[in-house]
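TL;DR need structure tokens for one chain.
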Amino acid sequence: MDKTKIDSLERVLKKLTYPLDDEFKNTIKKEAKRRKFDIAEMLDYFAEHAEELINFLENKSIKKPKILSDQRIAKNPKELSGLTLELFSNVGFNYGDYEGQTEERGIIECIFTNKRGQSALLPQSKISSLIKKQRQDLLIPPPPDATVSQLKNIHTLIILLDRQNKERTGRGEDKTNVIDFYLKEYEEARGKTEAELAKRGKFRDLFKYTLVSGGITTWVSEDEHYYKIRHHHFYDIDIPKSPKEKWHVFFNDPYAEALLNFKQYIPIFLKAIKDKQTDHNKGYLYFFLMTVLHYSNNQHTGFKVQMKISTLLDKIKIGNRVKERPGEAFKVLAECIGYVADNYKDVLNEVRFLNSKYEVKVTRDLEIFKSIDYEQFKASYLNDLGIKDIREALISFNTIGIKENNGRELKDYKEGLFLPI
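>> reply
TL;DR here they are.
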């Protein structure tokens, strides 16, 4: 086959998410022979007729790769990334956080407020969809899921939406805010293996709970003036009556608008969503990775973002017991940096520590965080900066930027996209 023609066709196939492999090449050869075309003519024809190509591939049972590559990146609008990092935590809500009901918005809603001051509202009429078996004696409604699982849920749905929209644009169709998927597709994206899926288990009920909770919960945050801001559920959800049917998720505005028309984004890695190391009580590792990506600097912007390590600990949702002990705070910070260094070598290539005068100590050897203890760290880094407590130090991350738009980053976006509803 002519290399130029193959390169041209490969660009089309990438948009359609089909592999250009030996199976495809052999099928094209047979089709060219059937139509009495030579190979070059057949390639030319399909390169110009994407809709006919995809119908041909489906009829010939040319299979797409399973779900997505672990290294696949989806783009999360920066505003949505910041909002979800703010709303969710390691702990989330439990039954003890239930505060009663309100009809302030004209419907009966259940209020939950946890020790971190986070609040959420569940419509009374939708609570039955969270319960596996109908119960008449339910005195306290089930709490909404606002844990790291909910953050991974939103990121999984963004990846599935991105996948579907790439297929749609490859066929010449407009992008959509609607996702249709089988639960197995979702479970695979969340890291379940074929063996685990065959056995099923409690994880299926937990995933369903998180999916439904994300589709009915109104999240409440506070702005810098302590005004309460209600964030209407990110999406509506249609729950299938049969396991053989697809789930339907409809992203609501303003989130849908942001997902379809963003200017700055934070990358989401499928590998990170699948990583079981970051589930449950180790959720702070996932929060740390996403916080690094959200607040990092790169070769386009320079070093501009610094934050106190005490603030960073709040952002990755570390509990008070750790935050109140500098040695424990360093231990968690070192674990987080070591985790990213081990698993995402292209994400973080150096860390900077600064004092209040912005004097700096830089480390590019991130492996040291797996062995150095707090006293050694103070002697090597903090003492020269005149810092006695790790929590008072400033930290800045340098990541390897993802080049797009000819290497330029778009900067002309507006903050504060999400307003009260």
